[in-house]
Amino acid sequence: MTDLLPRNRTDRDGNAPGIPPRLAPADRCTWRAPDDSTLGLLRHGRITDCELVPWGSNYTFAVRLEHDDHPPTVAIYKPRDGEIPLWDFPTGTLYRREYAAFLVSCMLGWYFVPPVVIRDGPHGIGTVQLYVEPARGVHDGEVRDTFTSQLQRIALFDLITNNADRKASHCFVGADEPQLWGIDHGLTFHVHPKLRTVIWDFCGQPIAQELLEAMEALEREADRVRATLRPYLTRQEVEMFLRRVAALREAGIFPHLNPRRNIPYGW
């Protein structure tokens, strides 16, 4: 992290206040939902400093947000114009995919994605996401043993969103709250199979009933899901997302993965 202790838009590149309602039933694994105050800070806070994060594959910035009702807050800003072109993802769409992934986590009630909004910044439209400090000295075995339920949900989330970039550093325990967080969801929702993940712990295991019920809720509320995601994804991407949800619910197990194809680059 660096030493860092415009208006939102209302067109297709903007987002409405608040988050979508939870569609899935409540379950035993609880994350705290983001509050309107934090979302308001991300959306309307003044960006008073902006520093390049040099290790990102795209242009990523640590920014300081200031607002009358909040102390200075660090966030991560990923402008659309800083996205490096990829051969398999349409140019200029990663920031929308990042935000769509947050919306899916909210509809499921799995609030492991730090609050994020789409807004203008010093380098144009992009995402601004609350920075969460990772805890130090937490090993993989401890994560699996202590946060098994949360890790299962993140693994299932990656399957339905077709996450092509679940590196080990993209899933971590927060320093201030004893929960798992997941970040960097720009490479999601591709219409072709792209899953690349380090979470292989549950391959071949049955998907818990409460997780199947969450998938059923998305299917049952498919029209609401479409209305929520269509401003940020293509029609085909949304329909393929719903197909993956249905396929996993019908299969009832975490699929076996391919060690050649399903490992993220630079994991």
Total DSSP helices: 7
Low-confidence stretches: 1-12
Give the CA-CA distance, first to last residue: 19 Å
| Domain tally | 1
The portion of residues assigned to helices is 25-40%
What's the arrangement of strands in the largest beta sheet? Answer: 1-2-3-5-4
The overall average pLDDT, rounded, is 90
Gross morphology is globular
Roughly what fraction of the amino acids lie in strands? Answer: 5-15%
Strand segment count: 7
Radius of gyration: 18 Å
For the largest beta-sheet, the strand count, sense and barrel status come to: 5 strands, antiparallel
Task: Give a brief rundown of this model.
The protein is α+β, with helices and mostly antiparallel strands and 267 residues long. The protein has helices at residues 36-44, 94-108, 140-146, 148-161, 209-220, 222-229, 235-251, and strands spanning 46-52, 61-67, 70-79, 116-119, 126-130, 171-173, 180-182. The protein has a 5-stranded antiparallel beta sheet. The chain has a two-stranded antiparallel ribbon with strand order 6-7.
Task: Tell me what you see in this structure.
The chain has 267 residues and is α+β, with helices and mostly antiparallel strands. It has one domain. It is built from 7 helices and 7 strands. Helix 5 packs antiparallel against helix 7 (235-251) and helix 6 (222-229) runs antiparallel to helix 7. Mean pLDDT is 90; it is low at 1-12.
